[in-house]
Write a structure and sequence with these properties.
The protein is mainly β. The strands form two sheets. Strands 1-4-5-6 form a four-stranded antiparallel beta sheet, with no helix packed on it. The chain has a two-stranded antiparallel ribbon with strand order 2-3. Helices cover 0% and strands 51% of the residues. It has strands at 3-6, 12-15, 24-30, 35-45, 54-59, 63-66.
Length: 71
């Protein structure tokens, strides 16, 4: 669901687009337990380093975090 979600994992990096082909934001890193505001979901991917398949969550600011890294 959209709204406030909690990050699972240390130093989770935000991407500038919904996929592993997009680069990382140079400074956004989230720690385990930190909350982020999810405004929508886009695409579907099974990232190699992720914990499972799923959509990319668009967070406030227009950046993306894989949904498997959120709870």
């Amino acid at each position: 669901p959209t709204g406030t979600r909690i990050v699972r994992g240390n130093y989770v990096r935000a991407r500038v687009g919904p996929g592993t082909s997009y680069g990382y934001h140079p400074t956004f890193r989230f720690r385990n337990g930190q909350s982020v505001n999810v405004v929508g979901y886009e695409g579907y991917e099974c990232p190699k380093s992720g914990k499972g398949c799923g959509p990319w969550a668009q967070i406030a600011g227009g950046y993306y975090v894989h949904s498997s890294l959120l709870r």
